[in-house]
Amino acid sequence: MPNKAISPAVPDAATGSEGITEVRRQEALLKTGALQGAILTSANFSIIATDEKGIIQVFNVGAERMLGYLAAEVVNRINPSDIHDPREVRARAQALSMELATPITPGFEALVFKASRGIEDIYELTYIRKDGSRFPAIVSVTALRDAASAIIGYLLIGTDNSARKLAEEKLQGATAAAEKANLAKSEFLSRMSHELRTPLGAILGFAQLVESGEPPPTPSQKRSIDQILRAGWYLLDLINEILDLALIESGRLSLSLEPTSLAEVMRECAAMIEPQAQKRAVTVAFPPTGLPYVVQADRTRVKQVLINLLSNAIKYNRAGGSVVVDCVATSPERLRLSVRDDGEGLAPEMLAQLFEPFNRLGQEANAEEGTGIGLVVSKRLVELMGGRIGAESTVGKGSVFWFELDQAAERWPAKIAGEPATTARVQALAEGQRHTVLYVEDNPANLMLVEDLIARRPGIRLLSAMDGLRGIEIAREARPDVILMDINLPGISGVNAMRILAEDPATAHIPVLALSANANPRDIARGLEAGFFRYLTKPIKVNEFMETLDTALETSATRSTAAGAKRLERS
């Protein structure tokens, strides 16, 4: 009778428990041997094992392929630090010494220091092949221990990191190219904004002069002037919105986050939006002025967002409708400002498209002007300030647009409505008193506009200069009461000219007003930080310009008196 075959997994009963154990041990050994063989013959990973002193004992096929050595050339001959870039090994030793406050000898000790303390370590270093060529590698180091936990060697498993490094370099190159393109785009748009504002300044400035001139325009002329002004200011809004969107998308928009009183912001917005609301017979209601709500935000950008929401609520409202502004705390950390209107409302599918650039939600055929940029810019601004924005709407009943911002840690009571923002202003210059204003400007149209504006004040004499250096000379000779300074001038910039005047004791007291087409908030903030008394943007708003000029003349008189008193004291 032939012998019966016995399966290793199901032994014969006669074999007993010892037989079963032996079979399982053999299976485990086979599996372990197969695993070890697979590891040692792997061509994708370098497997290097050392003894406790760091001398290489195992050098697998993958290590041979990567490094160009045969195992016989390195086993019992060198340690792994000999095939690493020595400068990187020294740098790693120094970094570990600082990190752990422990002296570490450069060399093999630096490669295995953490592993020797039971910390699995992974690091990036450069391997050096037998032929001297180099390649980046990622190496994992583990300490090998015996049954008593004593270190008997180290295992270093390495992978070629060349492909990832190459991909990183390409990505960095692409990122650098994109950043360069964004910078070029931003600079181009900034220049274009300046160039577009220059002719707009002449159009809007002279239109305002004709509108308010003597004799007053005829009804037909008034209609034409109104159209010029309406189209001009709308074009200016478009330029501002496109520039804002470009700056945001390029990541170059700077914000100044500080405690900002929402009560003050709402009061200022109410004054700005009132003419539009009156024109459309829409009532706008704001919450009580005493609310002590303060957010951590950029004041200028909060006003921009709120004005945009208010303008839309009025523009798309029904005749005789209302707009209600509310401010509530949604949590101890957040405040929500909401704008509710009585308009037609939006269907759910339109709500989902609200914040898409240039999407006017089917209003293109409507008589209302718009580009679909305002809400996109508002959303980006709110998010850059750490907040969020949203909307709810019911068709036939109206919409609510809202945005939330973080409350500021610092709080103070809001100012009472109607409280004067400055001390009482002298309403008129002394009769017969003559003042001198110097305007430094290289654009003839801008100069002509200011000449015509100043001509309406018989008590003011206007001097002019076409560049910064000539402006400094005239200022030192004539000692004007106020200086109007363009920023982009031939020769030296208006900022540098202003600084030279501020450092000269003879002209340091003269208020210098910036009058520039560089109109984004960052330009304005930089101008004020540089030392300008005020920063007005082109196109000129005639009333704002004349009021600011009056303030500067009053300040000049005060400063001149103080400067004269100091000179008397010194004498």
What does it look like?
The protein has 571 residues and is of the alpha/beta class. The protein has helices spanning 16-40, 61-67, 71-74, 86-100, 108-116, 162-211, 219-249, 262-279, 299-315, 348-351, 374-384, 444-454, 468-478, 494-503, 521-530, 542-570; strands at 46-51, 56-59, 121-128, 134-145, 151-160, 258-261, 283-285, 294-297, 322-331, 334-341, 388-394, 398-406, 435-440, 460-465, 482-485, 512-516, 534-537. The protein has four domains: 41-160, Beta-Lactamase, CATH 3.30.450.20; 179-249, Orthogonal Bundle (Helix Hairpins), CATH 1.10.287; 258-406, Heat Shock Protein 90 (2-Layer Sandwich), CATH 3.30.565; 435-570, Rossmann fold, CATH 3.40.50. The chain has 16 helices and 17 strands. The strands form four sheets. The chain has a five-stranded antiparallel sheet, with helices on both faces. It has a five-stranded mixed sheet with strand order 7-9-10-12-11. A hairpin with a 5-residue loop joins strand 4 and strand 5 (151-160).
CATH topology grouping of the largest domain? Heat Shock Protein 90
How many domains? The number is: 4
Tell me the number of strands.
17
Q: Return the CATH class of the largest domain.
A: Alpha Beta
Mean pLDDT: 82
**Number of discrete helical segments:** 16
Largest sheet: 5 strands, antiparallel
CATH superfamily of the largest domain: Histidine kinase-like ATPase, C-terminal domain
Strand percentage: 15-25%
Distance between the termini: 137 Å
User: What ranges have pLDDT less than 50 throughout 5 or more consecutive residues?
Assistant: 1-14, 412-432
Architecture (CATH level 2) name of the largest domain: 2-Layer Sandwich
Strand order of the largest sheet: 2-1-5-4-3
What is the radius of gyration?
Answer: 38 Å
